[in-house]
Every structure is written in structure tokens, then in C-alpha cells.
Automatic annotation (TrEMBL):
Residues 222-414 form the B30.2/SPRY domain. It comes from Electrophorus electricus. This is B30.2/SPRY domain-containing protein. Pfam families: PRY (PF13765), SPRY (PF00622). Coiled coil: none annotated. InterPro entries: B30.2/SPRY, B30.2/SPRY_sf, Butyrophylin_SPRY, ConA-like_dom_sf, PRY, SPRY_dom, TRIM/RBCC.
Length: 425
């Protein structure tokens, strides 16, 4: 019978066993040979990782070590801040220059007598480069200030501070993006926890939004490489319908019937020469302007030359006078496909890595901020900080003839950004 054969077990006892039992015994023998080496490999891998972590920790400079220790203190008292364990364990290490700037910036917040979200008295130390280049004496003084603040934290029970649902959602999103390699560091996550602890007596639901405003106030260029989805939702909820004002469009521009697409034509059109019409630069403004509240709009842009932003109601539109902050324009400009600029005076050159295909613009009139984002990656590009005192009109400009500049309607999230013949069907 095939179901009953003789086999030799590991104990060398001969007996009749079922074919299934014999196979199971042999399988266990094979598995034993596989499991033991696997266990050894796992142990060696863990030891190797721990050794690498220890070596990393030994190589950290004083500023990096300070951030590691601060992450431990913040994580200890803040509920749902497990994301900081990556920093506390030296798994996520920030560049030393970033650590210096963060230490000085946070210290300037702590030494401010009034909370930044309760007043317009924002910390003065806002230039990221200046912070990074501050003297060692300033850095040490900043560390002392932060260290004294953390003494109070250490006196609090573990996991005693609830950061709020909005903060937790943002932390989880930031950690996910970091794990996927979309974020270089977890700096944004640690900043959010810092804010939750510093401003714990305020409405927690507004902390992520106030953090965004603060970042854009203190760091105008590329402040946040990824804006958490919950914060992005808050920004985009201010979306409005924007259409072009035909009476302001340069005669060389072709405007679609829905007044949401524009490109340069080959022939100048015969149109009335209204005083509000651009006759030099290839621009047009929106039909409606804004003088209060928050507004959000998006535009698909060309690959070589475009201009977006706002124009003040009093800004002159005739001729080729520079459209910059001195003439009443707050704009972003791409030239020659690679030169991205904020048209301040003098202009502010922006990294080529920030060049977007779809631009999101958020106007917070009451807070005095006009911010530009990459609408696809949710990354901050540039923010103008100014006190507005007159109506602002969305501005659009292009010199491209092969691709339309397209104003997106609220809720239109089509991913088609191909340079098709949009105006011509």
C-alpha cells in the first residue's frame, strides 16, 4: 500500500508511518535548516542597523544632537506624536544648517512676549539664510532659551497633551509622504508638534493653518515642500470662479469663448483702446477683484513664458513699464523656460526645482498674504507679505502661441496638462 511505507525519522526509530507524516517530518527538517540561518540573518541585520544608528549619532554635530534631544522631549508629552521617534532615533537627520536656522527661529518665537497667532507682532528673525549664518553665540543663547522651555515640558506627565484632530491628520500625512521619499525630512511634522505644545490653550483646529501662515511669513521661498492634505483642503475651500475681462486683454491675445483660456495670436485684433486695457505686456486681469477674505484659483501654464499674480486696482496697464511691486503688481514670472522669478524690486530669483506646470494661488487679503503653490505636488513656491488697502485683481499673462494658459474652475482637477490645441477644439 502506498499509504503505508517505512521511513527513517530523526530519532532513528524505524516504524510504519503515513506518507503524510513522513513528509511533514522531512519538511520540518528542511525548515529547521532554513529558519536558523534566517534568524541569524535577522539578528545580524538588527545589529547592523543599530550599529549604523549609533555611528550616525556619533557623527551628529551639536546642533543636530540638540534637535534629536528636543524631538524626544516633544514626543514624550504630546499624544499621537510617534512620528518624532524617527528624529529622536536619528533615523531622520536634518542638515546642520537647517538645524541652526530652526533653533534660532523657534527661540525667536519663544522670546516674543505675545503669541504670534494672537497679534501681528511676528518674530523679526525671518530670513532663513540670515538665521543659518548667525553667530555661534546667538545659536547657544537660542539653545538655552529652548532648553529652559523644555524644563516645563519634562515636568508634565507623559502623553498629557492632545494636539487635536487636525494636527494628528497632518502628522500622519507628513509621515506617509516621508516614508515614500517625497519629503527629505520630517521638519514640518516637528514644527507642528512644537506649535501644538506652544499654543495648546488655543483652538487646536486652527493650529495647522496658523502654522502655514507663520511659515510663509518667516520663510517666503519654498517654505513647505509638502502641505498636508488637511491644510490643503482648507486652502482650496476658498476656491472661486475666475474669468478674464476682455476689455483688459492685450489686443495680441486670443481669448476663448468661456473667457478662461488665453494665448498669443499672430495678428493684432482691432479692439477699443480702453484705459484699463494692456497694450504693451501680453496680459489681462480677471473680471472681478477682491478686497477682503480668502480666495483661491488655479491655472495651467506654459513651458516657456508666463506671468501670474494680482494687480492693484490703481496699477497702470499701458506700455512696457515693469510689472513689479513698485508699479502695483505682485506676480510670479517664468522666462525662457528656466528662470522663475518673484517680481519684487529687485526681482527675487527662485530655484528651477520650484517651476510648476499648474499654479495654485491663495490670496488671504486680511492676513496680507499672496501665496503661490505647485498645485500638483502641494508644495509652497513663494509668498508676498504686505498690507493690502485696495482691490486686487487676478492677473494672467503669456507670450506662448502653441499652448493655452488655462484658468481652472473650482473642483476641476483634470490631470490633462498636454500642450493640445485647447482654443481650437
Amino acid at each position: 500500500m502506498l499509504s503505508q511505507i517505512k521511513c527513517r525519522l530523526p530519532s532513528d526509530d524505524n516504524r510504519v508511518c503515513s506518507l503524510a507524516s513522513c513528509r511533514a517530518a522531512k519538511m520540518m527538517q528542511c525548515l529547521q535548516f532554513l529558519v536558523e540561518p534566517a534568524k541569524n540573518i535577522t539578528v545580524k541585520f538588527k545589529e547592523s542597523r543599530q550599529k549604523a544608528k549609533n555611528e550616525k549619532r556619533e557623527l551628529l554635530d551639536d546642533n543636530q544632537q540638540f534637535i534629536v534631544c528636543l524631538a524626544k522631549d516633544l514626543s514624550r508629552v504630546c499624544q499621537r506624536s510617534e512620528v518624532l521617534e524617527h528624529i529622536a532615533s536619528s533615523e531622520d537627520i536634518w542638515p546642520s544648517v537647517t538645524c541652526r536656522a530652526v533653533i534660532l527661529e523657534w527661540a525667536s518665537m519663544l522670546e516674543s512676549k505675545e503669541r504670534p497667532v494672537q497679534t501681528d507682532g511676528w518674530p523679526e528673525k525671518g530670513d532663513w539664510k540670515e538665521l543659518a549664518l548667525s553667530s555661534e553665540q546667538n545659536v547657544e543663547s537660542a539653545k538655552t532659551l529652548i532648553f529652559n522651555w523644555t524644563k516645563d515640558l519634562r515636568a508634565q506627565p507623559e502623553q498629557s497633551v492632545w494636539p487635536g484632530e487636525q494636527v494628528v491628520a497632518a502628522l500622519e500625512d507628513l509621515e506617509k509622504q516621508w516614508r515614500r521619499g517625497h519629503l527629505a525630512t520630517l521638519q514640518s511634522a516637528m514644527e507642528l508638534v512644537f506649535w501644538a505644545l506652544l499654543l495648546k490653550e488655543l483652538n487646536k483646529e486652527y493650529i495647522p493653518q496658523q502654522w502655514l501662515i507663520w511659515k510663509q511669513k518667516s520663510q517666503k521661498i519654498g517654505a513647505i515642500p509638502y502641505i498636508p492634505q488637511s491644510v490643503w483642503d482648507w486652502i482650496s475651500k476658498a476656491a472661486v470662479e475666475v474669468t478674464l475681462d476682455l476689455d483688459t486683454a492685450n489686443p495680441d491675445l486670443l481669448i476663448s469663448d468661456d473667457e478662461k483660456r488665453m494665448r498669443c495670436g499672430t495678428d493684432r485684433q482691432d479692439v477699443p483702446n480702453y484705459h484699463q486695457r494692456f497694450d504693451g505686456w501680453w496680459c489681462a486681469v480677471a473680471a472681478d477683484g477682491f478686497s477682503s477674505g480668502r480666495r483661491y484659483w488655479e491655472a495651467d501654464v506654459g513651458e516657456m513664458d508666463w506671468r501670474l499674480g494680482v494687480a492693484k486696482e490703481s496699477a497702470l496697464r499701458k506700455g512696457f513699464k515693469s510689472l513689479n511691486t513698485h508699479t502695483g503688481y505682485l506676480t510670479l514670472r517664468l522666462e525662457r523656460g528656466s528662470e522663475l522669478k518673484a517680481l519684487t524690486v529687485p526681482f527675487t530669483a527662485l530655484p528651477a526645482s520650484l517651476i510648476p506646470r499648474r499654479v495654485a494661488i491663495h490670496l488671504d487679503y486680511d492676513k496680507g498674504q499672496l501665496s503661490f503653490y505647485n498645485a500638483e505636488s502641494h508644495a509652497h513656491i513663494y509668498t508676498y507679505n504686505e498690507s493690502f488697502d485696495e482691490k486686487l485683481f487676478p492677473l494672467f499673462g503669456t507670450v506662448e502661441m502653441a499652448k493655452d494658459l488655462i484658468i481652472r474652475s473650482p473642483g476641476d482637477r483634470s490631470q490633462c496638462l498636454c500642450p493640445g490645441m485647447c482654443l481650437w477644439g
